[in-house]
């Protein structure tokens, strides 16, 4: 039996979940993996705060050195969240020869090079399955199972809060702000939901996933981010009528040395596997040159699903004698030059309010045509109000720059652009 | 750079796919994993046979010893299929100190203990991701990512041929035999499709998956197997009308020390994630006590998807310094006693032809009630023919034994049972 002594940095919901999971799983750990895992110290802000998990008082400390300098502790598990001080604590732990397991997407996305360099320099492991999509084994799948693939693209529903909101708007025709308030009340959205609804949470995760998928460091700063705050019930209803479902998608595509990474509301055909992923479920759909299409779906958040990934990593780290780290193609010594593309192509859903006069449609079509944007479908929705009528267009594939240029040329005297939403197939 | 020399046992479609994948992937292997992988010898039946892949003639041999006794070869990759001689060759390779990577579900399902014992005894690895569901990383997910879970159940669509047939029957109302002939013509069913349509292919895979999920050796012989050969267009149409989709499901459930494993046609509600998995896609839906619900979906067959899994294993085996093997709870030295349950509970779809007379329904309901099988829904379908009318029942949860007893008691003078299909939620 191998005795593994670990320390926690932080003990909020996920930390509590990990404590609970480990507590009830010792028999299985012994039998399956010949392991005994013991939590020795737990860093908290306030030792007197009431906690949902039964961590004994004497394990708690407010001094990080009690965790990262304890010679008996071999694995430090970080649940603090946020970039700092989590990153510095993890680097100190790695330098002290301890393997780090983290659920912290922000720290990994922003400081991956520093964390990995510290791990490699000191011959220890850095594990972060829980940082992306909770229990879904997307990190391990990209790092190991799909290692023999050139991943061409991945698209994910990787934020449960926004998927819950959009699913309800789709099913019940409700307004964004009403559903958001309800989600807050139900604990499905944070009191300050900005990071979720503005797309940043998804962008951190996309930076991590796409780096592993493309074996290229994809910085968070290169991710185009657009949230769901401007999405309207009207857009969702129009899309629904045309057979589309609106999702906040995280999209990463690689074509040769070009990489595009973006998070934005996206219409998907109702028959797409991601279109069926509802409520607080997460899913990642990807295509590799050998594996072809694949989708992983599951619980992307929650104490126990996230604890499932954390404890999986702890077991993995305890059993592994060699810690394997990914190689990126755009580190200084790499053999590939990668560029990040902000002029991607897409199809587009455009909703406008146009003056109800003959010849207007020809004008609008002309503005699109001037930029080589070609129309696939047009639908008039509802009736004339204040002399204007809502028109919906879905375009064929066009470049983002051309689309933006076309919309900028629209004459507000003739029509105004109410929304522009990208469409994937 | 680590040079890895490997040998093939067999070189059919999957072997050819692996050759092709390795050939075009050397640059990535070098960069990502610091590996160079070279195929040195390839065992074939006939060195003169024309091949789709460009294996040089001088690598081919008809003598297995050229592969398993070559001291330079460290990994033997087996693509022969079937129990023998594949199993004996793999055991000889393991005993010769070579790690084995296999795509052979039959050999693994039937001789796992012997293979694993040989691998452990000689300190080498045994990898079999490709033996179940092609590119889908279900083995690695069960073995590693979900290690911190008690898996409660898994349900899979793990045979592409039958899923293609059932999907077409569902969508177009076609008859089983017509679709089967068409599938043969299209290369989607074997000339002799027995192993697929009778459920054995799925049962081998279920034996492997459930063994890993439950950390208990689930022998192939314990799997209840019923294929799709008796499925009718009429049953599928009736189910469809009631909101159900018919799939050949592989189901494994664990409740305490009881395990049930079964492969049979199953109705699923149209809203179930597995109900949306169509054509030749495979998917596994599972639930763990920590991870909750999860689904992995992808290409379960085909040269390149299977090669994706094989080469993933070769890379994994080349990089790993320690080869980890699963522990089963029902080996002689284990701490758990497991029983295999053949009296599971389910809901049931029953279609009968009943004499069109007053009082018949009361009689049928009485036969169900006598065995404590309670009816959830009843539907009359179509009109009276030759004095008999088709009736469909869907029951509440009932035990398999009770259901069988109820059906056995039906009086053929009053009604005949045309079909009985299990229903999952």
Overview of the structural elements:
Two copies of one chain form a homodimer. With 425 residues, the first copy, chain A, is an alpha/beta fold. Chain A has three domains: 2-134 and 306-319, Rossmann fold, CATH 3.40.50.720; 138-299, 2-Layer Sandwich (Dihydrodipicolinate Reductase, domain 2), CATH 3.30.360; 345-423, 2-Layer Sandwich (Alpha-Beta Plaits). Chain A has helices spanning 13-23, 26-33, 65-68, 86-95, 105-121, 138-145, 160-172, 176-185, 194-197, 200-214, 233-241, 303-319, 360-370, 400-408; strands at 2-9, 35-43, 60-61, 75-78, 99-102, 126-127, 151-157, 224-225, 244-255, 258-269, 281-288, 292-299, 339-340, 345-355, 375-380, 388-395, 398-399, 415-423. In chain A, the strands form two sheets. In chain A, strands 7, 8, 9, 10, 11, 12, 13, 14, 15, 16, 17 and 18 form a twelve-stranded mixed sheet that branches. A six-stranded parallel sheet of chain A has the order 3-2-1-4-5-6, with helices on both faces. In chain A, α5 (105-121) packs parallel to α10 (200-214). The termini of chain A are far apart. The mean pLDDT of chain A is 94. Chains A and B meet through α2, α6, β12 and α12 of A and α2, α6, β12 and α12 of B. β12 of chain A pairs antiparallel with β12 of chain B.
List strands and helices in order, with pairings.
Two copies of one chain form a homodimer.
Chain A: E1 2-9, H1 13-23, H2 26-33, E2 35-43, E3 60-61, H3 65-68, E4 75-78, H4 86-95, E5 99-102, H5 105-121, E6 126-127, H6 138-145, E7 151-157, H7 160-172, H8 176-185, H9 194-197, H10 200-214, E8 224-225, H11 233-241, E9 244-255, E10 258-269, E11 281-288, E12 292-299, H12 303-319, E13 339-340, E14 345-355, H13 360-370, E15 375-380, E16 388-395, E17 398-399, H14 400-408, E18 415-423
Parallel strand pairs in A: 1-2, 1-4, 2-3, 4-5, 5-6, 8-10, 10-13, 10-18
Antiparallel strand pairs in A: 7-9, 7-11, 9-10, 11-12, 14-16, 14-17, 14-18, 15-16
Helix pairs in contact in A: 1-12, 4-5, 5-10, 7-8
């Amino acid at each position: 039996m191998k005795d593994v002594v670990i320390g926690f940095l932080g003990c909020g919901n996920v930390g509590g979940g990990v404590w609970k999971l480990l507590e009830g799983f010792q028999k299985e750990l012994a039998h399956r993996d010949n392991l005994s895992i013991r939590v020795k110290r737990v860093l908290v802000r306030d030792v007197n705060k009431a906690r949902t998990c039964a961590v004994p008082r004497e394990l708690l400390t407010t001094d990080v050195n009690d965790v990262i300098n304890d010679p008996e502790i071999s694995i430090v598990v970080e649940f603090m969240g946020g970039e700092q001080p989590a990153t510095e604590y993890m680097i100190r732990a790695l330098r002290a020869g301890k393997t780090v397991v983290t659920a912290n997407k922000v720290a990994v996305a922003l400081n991956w090079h520093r964390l990995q360099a510290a791990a490699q320099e000191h011959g220890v492991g850095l594990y972060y399955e829980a940082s992306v999509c909770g229990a879904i084994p997307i990190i391990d799948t990209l790092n190991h199972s799909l290692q023999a693939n050139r991943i061409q693209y991945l698209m994910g529903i990787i934020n449960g809060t926004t998927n819950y909101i959009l699913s309800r708007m789709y099913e019940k025709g409700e307004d964004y702000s009403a559903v958001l308030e309800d989600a807050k009340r139900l604990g499905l959205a944070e009191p300050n939901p900005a990071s979720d609804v503005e797309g940043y949470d998804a962008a951190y995760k996309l930076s991590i996933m796409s780096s592993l998928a493309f074996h290229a460091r994809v910085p968070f700063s290169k991710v185009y981010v657009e949230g769901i705050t401007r999405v309207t019930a009207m857009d969702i209803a129009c899309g629904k009528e045309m057979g589309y479902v609106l999702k906040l998608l995280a999209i990463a595509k690689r074509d040769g040395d070009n990489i595009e990474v973006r998070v934005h509301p996206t219409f998907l055909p109702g028959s797409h596997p991601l279109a069926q992923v509802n409520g607080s479920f997460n899913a990642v759909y990807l295509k590799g040159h050998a594996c072809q299409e694949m989708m992983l779906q599951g619980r992307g958040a929650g104490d126990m699903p996230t604890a499932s990934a954390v404890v999986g990593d702890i077991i993995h780290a305890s059993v592994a004698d060699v810690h394997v780290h990914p190689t990126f193609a755009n580190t200084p010594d790499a053999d590939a030059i990668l560029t990040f593309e902000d002029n991607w192509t897409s199809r587009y859903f455009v909703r406008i309010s146009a003056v109800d006069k003959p010849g207007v449609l020809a004008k609008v079509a002309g503005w699109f045509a001037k930029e080589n944007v070609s129309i696939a479908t047009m639908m008039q929705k509802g009736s004339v109000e204040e002399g204007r009528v809502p028109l919906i267009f879905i375009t064929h594939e066009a470049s983002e720059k051309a689309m933006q240029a076309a919309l900028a040329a629209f004459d507000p005297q003739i029509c105004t652009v109410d929304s522009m939403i990208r469409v994937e197939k």
